[in-house]
Amino acid sequence: RSWPAASQIPPPPLRYRYHRSEYLGSAHGLGGVLFALLAWPGPHLSPGGSVQASVDWLISVGAANGDGNVGPTLDEANVSELVHWCHGSPGLVHLYARAHRVWGGSRYLQAVQASADNAVWQRGLLRKGPGICHGVAGSGYAFLLLHRLLLRARQFAQFMLDSDEFRQGARRPDCPYSLFEGWAGTACFYADLASPELAAFPLFDAFD
């Protein structure tokens, strides 16, 4: 999916280059850098500053894309293809939730819900495996962020447990027992389902 309207939005004031690409996601992109900046109080978090403007830019691109999702790089911001924690809405919803804690207002909560309802719920059942980086559990964490959508988080968990489509079609991760690609992160997801009021994406807590 490519949305021309998103490509017309001027670039954000803050940009981050990694391996010659300006990534936008939470794992190795602008979203992750902004999340870290939001976790550290200081004058850089003043309303209307470059940090807030960059978060708002991600939301604007997602809205222009029609489903709240953002492409993997600045050059492909208008390509709503990857719906992963590392690249796309499942990761950016944690940034938006953190932004709401810092600046308040309804804009950021609306961005969480729009991204989760549209991109993650519609396209978050992934075949890349169970993990939290680019797997089903990472998508499920988007709904643990929203307690009133807990039923949806449980359905992501159920998909991994009971679905023949997942059991037969899911790829084996490169590191099947690791936190981000494998079952260790998935175990965290299942544990958090038991106590959703304390749920937090591992090492990426929007509420801490």
Silhouette: globular
Measured on Cα atoms, how large is the radius of gyration?
16 Å
* Mean pLDDT figure: 91
Number of helices: 9
Write structural notes for this entry:
This protein has 208 residues and is an all-alpha fold. The protein has 2 domains: 1-123, no CATH class; 124-208, no CATH class. It contains 9 helices and no strands. Helix 4 (89-103) runs parallel beside helix 6. It is globular and about 45 Å long. It starts with a helix and ends in a 14-residue tail after the last helix. 46% of the residues are buried. One of its GO terms (biological process) is carbohydrate metabolic process. InterPro entries: 6hp_glycosidase-like_sf, LANC-like, LanC-like_prot_euk.
How does the SSE layout of this entry go?
Elements: H1 4-7, H2 30-38, H3 50-65, H4 89-103, H5 106-123, H6 136-144, H7 150-162, H8 164-169, H9 183-194
Which terms would index this structure?
2 domains; 49% helix
Q: What can be said about this structure in brief?
A:
The protein has 208 residues and is mostly helical.
